[in-house]
Amino acid sequence: MMLALFTVIVVLGALGVYLALPRGRAHPGRAPLLVLAAAAGLLAWLVVSVSTGGGPRAAFVVLSTLALAGAVRVITHRRPVYSALYFILVIVAVAGLLVLMGAEFLAASLVIIYAGAILVTYVFVIMLAQQPDDAPCDVDAREPLWAAAAGFALLAAIGSQLFGPVAIREPAAPVGDNVALVGTVLLTRYAVAVELAGVLLLAAMIGAIAIARRRVTSEEA
Amino acid sequence: MLIPYLTLGAALFVLGLVGFVSRRNLIIMFLCTELMFQGIVINLAAFGRYPLTGPPTLDGQAFALFLLAVAASEAALGLALVVLLYRFRGTLDAAAWSTLKDS
Q1: How much is the pTM?
Q2: What is the ipTM score, two decimals?
Q3: In principle, which of A44, A144, A151, B80 could form an S-S bond with A208, CB 3.0–4.6 Å?
Q4: How far apart are CA A57 and CA A63, in angstroms?
């Protein structure tokens, strides 16, 4: 029963994303919005009916709807600047979900690193690499039908395990002071990995500088 | 509450995947990889909070923090490459570099 409902949601979602992906200059109109709203409503109902015990459900439904709506706009908007801004919406919603899960430190670092650092880099690159409005690579998606079909087939495969006949046991237990505990874990069990992450960031920084300062002399590579 | 979080993580990952294979703008393709990272972060934190056996652990959150470091490195290198490619061809269209494909 739940699996059948999830299949209907997946088909609706694939149809909505396929209709919403940019194809030519024609505006997609109101249809994809309605289809995606129906899929989101069914998904919210399914989630509320399947979730047992523990955790504020209303906050989860609101935040996950925001995240999914922002994600759809990221992949369907024709102008890259707006895609980046909708991605910030996704980040904030995901940070809220992490707070619901008791991961306050991860939520704070997600907002600081993504919305504060990575997205600023994206906006800078969007400004540096200006294209004319309605450039062909922005208004035409590549094989939207096959892309949506393949992606949502993957989602159906995952969902058939999550909502399948074998139910996953749902434990619930409290957590303590998150920041202190995460700090302890990072600096004891994962101390070597923290050092490695620092080396990786240093290497990426040097590599990015070396790549970006190269002069381009000829028009053809 | 484990299954709702896993469903949301899978949905975010799939939306990023669909965007990655169907959009042609290099910057948006990189944004879609970041979208997939968000789905993975939710999965990691959910498995840490609601583990299948035993008490909740912080390993998922610690792993997600390392994922943030990798994502930052990936964004720095990828965007530097995008800027370089844009200076070569004057366009962000991924199809402009289809000569890199195996024939």
Answers
A1: 0.90
A2: 0.91
A3: B80
A4: 10
